[in-house]
Amino acid sequence: MDKAEIRKTIYRRRAENGGTLLPDSRIICEKVMQTREFQSASAIYVYMDCKGEVSVRPLLEAAWKLGKKTAAPRVTGPGEMRYYYISSYGDVAPGYYNIPEPTTGREAADEDALLIMPGVAFDPMRHRCGYGQGFYDRYLAAHTQHPTIALAFSFQILEEVPADSNDIRPDMVVTEKEVYLA
User: Which residue from 121, 125, 136 is spatially nearest to 171, judged by alpha carbons?
Assistant: First the structure.
């Protein structure tokens, strides 16, 4: 399948699995919270979930309780995003494509923050099919020190995802059933 076909397939699977998304999100986030990367991080950069993605709410709530700095992305130009600090869900509002974005003006600058990334689909080698605009690949190419963990439901893991030289693989992909490591 090419990336366009993969996106259609996964969007359909998200709709079909709607009733299990929140319970499975909790399982995935619990697994992430047990990782050395999460436990040792002083800052966590997350995506703001929407449209059936793995919910990051449990991660954010745990990070806030632990006193970790948290940040989320805001689109700042064509194909460009930057992270801004958030300390509650009151710090975000609908933005680019109606995805929640930070409303604060405090740009995050933790080059070694644990970065939690989304994706449409992955394969066991951690190749990633994103949403097609390259925001995370561009950001990670410019900020190379972030440890990265991608969150996905098991139905988002395919046998193979096409990849090219610009695609940046996460260090780890965590699903409710498996953990795929570098």
Answer: 125
Contacts of 42 (CB under 8 A, 6+ apart): 68, 69, 110, 113
Residue for token digits 């076909």? 5
d(CA 25, CA 54): 5
Domain borders along the chain are 3-181
Class (C level, CATH) for 3-181: alpha beta
Task: Retrieve residue 108's tokens.
Answer: 């995050």
pLDDT in tens, 75-105: 999 989 999 999 999 999 999 999 999 998 8
Structure tokens at 143: 């900020």
Are 82 and 73 within 8 A, CB to CB?
yes
pTM comes to 0.96
